[in-house]
Amino acid sequence: MEKFRTSHGLDQWKLRRLHPRLDGLESLIGDWRLSAYAQRSAFRVMGSMANRSAVHQDEVYYAMVGAITTDAAGDTDDRDAPAAEYFMRVCERKGDFSFVYSGSDRARPSWRPVPGALTAVLPWHSDGDAQTGELDGLRLRLHQMAQAHQGELAEEARRFLGGALHALGVDPALPGSMVPDAILTSLRQAGFAGCGERLELESGYFFPVHRLPREGSWSVHIAREIFWTFGAPALLITPTAGSTLVVDVGVFVGPVPAEGATLDLD
């Protein structure tokens, strides 16, 4: 495949656009070679299954369960639960909450995707073993989350983006004003279903799945334990009546902050 890319003048992003399933095969082979059995993050598994199909959708989730654990089905409630719900319960018992970075709709609690079509917000090969955290009833405490601040790009972020553009399949010679749109184009070629909006942060750019809220206060929190070479998944959250709710999920492109903190979500 490397010879094919070289002879046709393609990078990984162009190959994904031309032959998405072939590129997905390469991602699966890379995942198989680099990951110990049952040690993949739920997020990586969701991304690897993005271009897979089955006669029955439940088969996809049972395959995902088999990729992250050797445990058999738990109690009767587990066995009777819908397949997507069962997958999330397995992740919770394992202590890996990276499934929260799904682009699916939310209900209550706000951090938990609605059981259904669980898809990675960006189905691109990711690093990191898990998004660690723990449950306290319906409240979730995520570890190693870094809050981003709105503002003009800092110099460190500009330097990082200058080097990351090649990894994103973006021409580094583009004028700065055209870079965000070019990044979004690449993300969409890789399977990102974002609305097209972006938020400039001191540390990079945040591309949400849905339109940004027009009212209220909100902030972007970046994952440090699940990441790509060019950034990481991120959550858009808002404080509401003593609770902290997830408003949206998206892709952060920029240097992942060096320090993180716990983030409580309701």
Give a verbal description of the structure.
- Helices cover 33% and strands 20% of the residues.
- Strand 1 and strand 2 (139-148) form a beta hairpin.
- It folds into two domains: 2-133, no CATH class; 145-265, no CATH class.
- It is α+β, with helices and mostly antiparallel strands and 266 residues long.
- The chain is built from nine helices and eight strands.
- It is globular.
- Strands 1, 2, 3, 4, 5, 6, 7 and 8 form an eight-stranded antiparallel β-sheet that branches.
- The chain starts with a helix and ends with a strand.
- The relative contact order is 0.14.
Structural class: alpha+beta
Q: Show unreliable segments.
A: none
Strand content: 15-25%
Give the CA-CA distance, first to last residue. 45 Å
Radius of gyration (Å): 18 Å
The total domain count is 2
Count of extended strands? 8
Largest sheet: 8 strands, antiparallel
In round numbers, the mean pLDDT is 88
Large-scale geometry: globular
What is the helical fraction, as a range of percent?
25-40%
Number of helices: 9
**What order do the helices and strands follow?**
HHHHHHHEEHHEEEEEE
